[in-house]
Amino acid sequence: MFYPILYMICFFMNLSLNQSLSPPFSVRDHQIIDSKNEIVNIHGVSKSGFEYLYLDVQVFTNTSIQFDIQLMKEWNINTVRFPLRDIYWEISDYRQIIHYFIDQLWKENILSIIDLHTQGSSYGLDPFLLRKPEGVYDAMQFWQEVAFSFQTKDHVWFELFNEPYQISPDTWWNGNEMYYGYREIVQRIRSITPRIVILGGLDYAYQWNFLHYYPSIKQELLTIDNLVLTTHPYGYKGRPVQNGTQTDPIPIQMYSIQDEEIKEGDCSMGYTLPTVSSLEYGWNESFGFLLDEFPLLFTEFGLDRIDSALQGGWYMMDLMDYLRLHQHVGWIAWAWVRERLDYPSLLQENFQPTGIARYKTKGPACSVSANQFYPGPGLLIYNYLTDIPTQKRMTLFSFSFLRTWLVVSDPIHFYHDLFPIFICAISIFLFLFLFLFLSVWIHRRSTQRLQQDRSILSVIMTTTTTNPTTMVVDSRPFLRLRSIRSLDSMI
Q1: How far apart are alpha carbons 311 and 108 in whole angstroms?
Q2: One domain, residues 83 and 201
Q3: Range 319-340 burial, b when 16+ CB lie within 10 A, else e
Q4: What is the C-alpha to C-alpha distance for residues 16 and 12, in angstroms, rounded to an integer?
């Protein structure tokens, strides 16, 4: 009964229960900001495993999740990306594990990104958001259910598709009979929640140069609230070609291994070095030109295979240098899993960062010019995160108990339900307090005046009783005035 009354009062006070006075996370110009108008710098990892085999989720127990989170805290990670498969969202155990993981992360002040990584039962990667026959679970139904599920959780953002490729810019935005366009998915999500949405470019989410050739799409993107763009700068990605939809790789040269150069590592096929400077990699033409207009995240980057990681270590090191020069560009490294073959793992089997030592017995060593060895993806990310000054890290709330209390399950959420009600209740309390204060003040003033009048009357009555002539004397002027008036009338 109390809730509807407050709702009506808030409605007439023009306070909305669906919006807080200051949104926790939003996009302003080309920055992601928090409720204090401070820039949010994203530094995180992708928690791989949920996107391929549903059986993988059986290893995600409460104990393993808590262990993961504690290790993430030691790395100073502030964001975790969850690559998901759409059809698994229909399985309740799958949803419960994701919700539990995300809620536990938020207790530790760590944001989450939901990424639609794979679709259907196929183990291959689809080019884009598949449009399936009516009644068949697809990307649209997935995002509709996810949006409803997290509509009141501001700390969960949505990356609408992992890596679009082999489609035209028009299909990317408007869709066709085979694929949903980003516009349609964004509109559906916006009808449910104002959460931050993330869009990847073409050429496996790397290339954005096509916006130069499709200015109308860019203008529409600029009108969308809480929109973030992402790029996946993997491997030897380089300059844009073919109207900005594909990429010309960075030119490299292969070097063979010499016996006198053998060091720790694995470069059984030699090693590579770029034949151009990092300024000629094409990053600015491919995505850097957007930095003054949109928030930009690297939601995936890393290096595949053990040998290619060492051979191409220069690429990842140069990319991290680029991020140091552009502190407002957030990033999510791939992937937070223990060592796996043909996979850019950030963790060794013993949960230490992947580094040079793990390759010591793999074969011939890798030597890079001036003996600058690639430290390995995990060690590189770990060193970057632990070197970030404390003041640069994202801070949301100072008190852990407040963060814990704010993790409230749907449909109740502090910012969108409890906070406006709290404001309304405070307003009502202040109004009642003011009303009561004025009522008491008026009553007291009235009582005082009445007491004064009674005192005056008492004095008059007392005076009249003790000296009756006083009243006669006092009434004489009136008698005298009546006599004068009577005399005037006679005259």
Answers
A1: 37
A2: yes
A3: bbebbeeeeebbbbbbbbbebe
A4: 10
Classify 79 as helix, strand or coil: strand
Three-state secondary structure call for residue 197: strand
DSSP β-ladder status, 25-28 and 31-34: antiparallel
Find out whether 417 and 152 touch, Cβ atoms under 8 Å.
Answer: yes
Q: pLDDT class for 21, splitting at 50, 70, 90?
A: very low
Q: Structure tokens of 73?
A: 């805290």
Nearest to 158 by CA among 218, 99, 207, 226: 226
Query: What is the chain's length?
Result: 491
Please report whether residue 406 resides in a domain: no
Q: Decide if 11 is inside a domain.
A: no
CA-nearest of 128, 17, 139, 25 to 84 is: 139
Say if strands 330-333 and 43-46 run parallel, antiparallel, or are unpaired: parallel
Q: Structure pTM?
A: 0.74
447 and 375 fall within a common domain: no
Contact 45, 77 (CB under 8 A): yes
User: Which residues lie across from 201 on neighbouring strands?
Assistant: 205
Contact by Cβ (8 Å): 385, 393: no
Number of Cβ atoms within 10 Å of the Cβ of 373: 17
- Do both 425 and 351 map to the same domain? no
The verdict on residue 444 lying in a domain is yes
- The answer to whether residue 413 is domain-embedded is no
pLDDT tens digits for 348-364? 888 998 875 333 333 44
- Residue among 319, 280, 279 at smallest CA distance from 298: 319
As a whole number of angstroms, the distance between CA 460 and CA 137 comes to: 94
Residue 198 belongs to what domain range?
A: 25-395
Q: Find the CATH number of the domain harbouring 215.
A: 3.20.20.80
Q: What is the mean pLDDT of the chain?
A: 78
Same domain, 283 and 363: yes
pLDDT single digits (tens) 180-230: 999 999 999 999 999 999 999 999 999 999 999 999 999 999 999 999 999
Reported as a pLDDT band with limits 50, 70 and 90, residue 13 is very low
Could you tell me the pLDDT band of residue 150, with boundaries at 50, 70 and 90?
A: very high
- DSSP-derived 3-state class of residue 345: coil
- Per the structure, how many domains does the chain have? 2
Whether 370 and 435 map to the same domain: the answer is no
Report the pLDDT value the prediction gives residue 437, as an integer from 0 to 100: 77
Position 339 scores a pLDDT of: 76
